[in-house]
């Protein structure tokens, strides 16, 4: 398989029609599989060739780059606005707190309710495409795709993409403080869709979503076993869900679930075998693609995202941060900047307006949107390792590479100091990547160290179900008929 980046092919993928891959983005899940008589290619025809299967898979990755998904709201956009990483306030909003209005649809300002509804729909459309590809692999894969490794890779990537999106839906709509709140695991939150149809699916307990995602990933890992020795340092497989990326996602989920043994095992396997190393420079690579275990490619990224990330004399719609907040957020003291994440290679800074703007989506030659990067594995090892001294060593490995001298190494006196140190590093490392909001939610943090004007709560962390899901998808009567505590093995 090749990394498909050329626009002519991507446009062709976009035009292949509702029934075969890039399903129409509609307002109700009941419409996901409507078949138009004007479809360019019938599904039967598309999946009669290996190129058709490849195009279907490419379509899934393409859908993930949509600005309503990982090309915006699920990366640097809405999630990082919720974590108050920017000072940008859209027209129509009076202050940054307006973003927490989940109940009312607004025509200006943050439009959070509409964005949440769009995000839910986008991710479940991606999942529907994964399920459709898996269905056709079951039906025709062996007859059409003669190479077993290729066939296994297609299935593994579809399973991994499904698990990635389902887990993010859980992190977004699921309970806060998962792993520390005894009631969180049993809380019904989202469906886990494994069928390629428009049937209504029940809301499952959070722990079942975790188990189902891990089941998908374990299967994907086995299917990609031939990639165990793959080195990602010079591999196009970084733009796909490869073996090491699957392992890293498993480490992320095990960490979320508080399963230290498996989280450490998966993270260590990634660190030891992926072929990537922590970078000591971000010159010409502020997004640190050199550390990406898995990333999406967005064609013409800088142009596509210019409204948010283009530098200029003044910022109007860009996700800028004011110098005062920047200094607090990144722990900058005067002219002393050991951390490469705060230097000119990482940010545009304007002394006259006292503002800064990340270069991650402007100086980005690989046109990459990170999904998982190597430093997260060190943070997982830090958080999940019982011995506090060893745990601190993992965190300091990243800090030293980022520019901090060993004389500034951190130590943990107790569990609270470990989480405080992780909080500081997590927010600096994953600025404008969409991961920090989930860290805050998982640890139930109600105040922000860099902004004492913001108060977070369970109500702000747990998104309400979109209206369309209540109307067209899950219904309370559905769960009532099946029993509130029923285990759903085939959602």
UniProtKB/TrEMBL annotation:
Signal peptide (UniProt feature, chain positions) = 1-22
Q: Where is the SusD-like N-terminal domain?
A: 31-254
Major localization class: membrane
InterPro entries, per the entry: SusD-like_N (IPR033985), SusD_RagB_dom (IPR012944), TPR-like_helical_dom_sf (IPR011990)
Q: Which PROSITE patterns match?
A: PROKAR_LIPOPROTEIN
Keyword terms, alphabetized: Cell outer membrane, Membrane, Signal
Q: What species is given as this protein's source?
A: Hoylesella shahii DSM 15611 = JCM 12083
| UniProt cross-references to Pfam families, sorted A to Z | SusD-like_3, SusD_RagB
One GO cellular component term, please give it. Answer: cell outer membrane
- Which stretches make up the RagB/SusD domain? 328-461
Is Metal-binding included in the keywords of this UniProt record?
no
Q: Which family is it part of? A: Belongs to the SusD family.
The record's listing under SUPFAM superfamilies reads: TPR-like
Gene3D superfamilies with a match to the protein in the record: 1.25.40.390
Location of this chain's protein in the cell: Cell outer membrane
Is Signal there in the keyword field? yes
Q: Which superkingdom heads the taxonomic lineage of this protein's source?
A: Bacteria
Q: What is this protein called?
A: SusD-like starch-binding protein associating with outer membrane
């Amino acid at each position: 398989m090749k990394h498909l980046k050329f626009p002519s092919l991507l446009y062709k993928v976009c035009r292949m029609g509702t029934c075969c891959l890039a399903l129409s983005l509609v307002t109700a899940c009941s419409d996901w599989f409507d078949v138009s008589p004007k479809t360019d290619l019938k599904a039967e025809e598309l999946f009669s060739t290996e190129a058709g299967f490849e195009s279907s898979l490419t379509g899934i990755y393409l859908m993930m780059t949509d600005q309503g998904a990982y090309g915006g709201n699920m990366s640097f956009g809405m999630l990082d606005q919720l974590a108050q990483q920017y000072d940008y306030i859209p027209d129509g909003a009076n202050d940054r707190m307006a973003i927490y209005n989940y109940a009312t649809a607004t025509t200006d300002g943050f439009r959070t309710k509409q964005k949440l509804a769009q995000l839910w729909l986008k991710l479940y459309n991606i999942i529907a495409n994964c399920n459709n590809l898996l269905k056709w692999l079951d039906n025709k894969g062996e007859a059409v795709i003669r190479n077993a490794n290729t066939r296994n890779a297609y299935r593994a990537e579809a399973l991994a993409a499904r698990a990635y999106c389902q887990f993010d839906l859980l992190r977004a709509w699921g309970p806060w403080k998962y792993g520390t709140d005894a009631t969180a695991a049993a809380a019904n939150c989202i469906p886990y869709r494994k069928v390629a149809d428009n049937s209504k699916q029940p809301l499952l307990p959070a722990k079942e979503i975790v188990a189902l995602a891990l089941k998908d990933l374990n299967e994907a890992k086995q299917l990609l076993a031939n990639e165990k020795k793959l080195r990602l340092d010079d591999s196009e497989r970084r733009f796909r869900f490869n073996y090491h990326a699957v392992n890293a996602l498993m480490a992320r989920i095990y960490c979320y679930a508080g399963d230290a043994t498996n989280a450490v095992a998966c993270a260590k396997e990634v660190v030891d075998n992926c072929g990537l190393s922590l970078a000591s420079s971000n010159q010409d690579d502020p997004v640190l693609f050199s550390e990406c275990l898995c990333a999406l490619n967005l064609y013409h990224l800088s142009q596509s995202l210019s409204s948010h990330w283009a530098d200029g004399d003044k910022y109007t719609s860009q996700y800028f941060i004011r110098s005062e907040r920047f200094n607090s957020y990144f722990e900058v003291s005067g002219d002393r900047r050991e951390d490469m994440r705060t230097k000119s290679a990482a940010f545009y800074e304007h002394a006259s307006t006292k503002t800064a703007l990340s270069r991650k989506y402007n100086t980005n030659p690989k046109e990459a949107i990170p999904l998982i990067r190597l430093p997260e594995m060190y943070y997982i090892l830090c958080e999940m390792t019982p011995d506090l001294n060893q745990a601190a060593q993992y965190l300091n490995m990243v800090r030293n590479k980022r520019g901090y001298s060993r004389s500034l190494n951190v130590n943990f006196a107790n569990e609270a100091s470990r989480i405080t140190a992780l909080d500081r590093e997590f927010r600096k490392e994953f600025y404008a990547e969409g991961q920090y909001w989930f860290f805050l939610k998982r640890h139930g943090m109600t105040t922000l160290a860099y902004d004492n004007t913001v108060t977070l709560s369970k109500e702000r962390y747990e998104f309400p179900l979109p209206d369309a899901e209540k109307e067209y998808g899950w219904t309370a009567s559905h769960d009532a008929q099946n029993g509130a505590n029923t285990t759903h093995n085939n959602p």
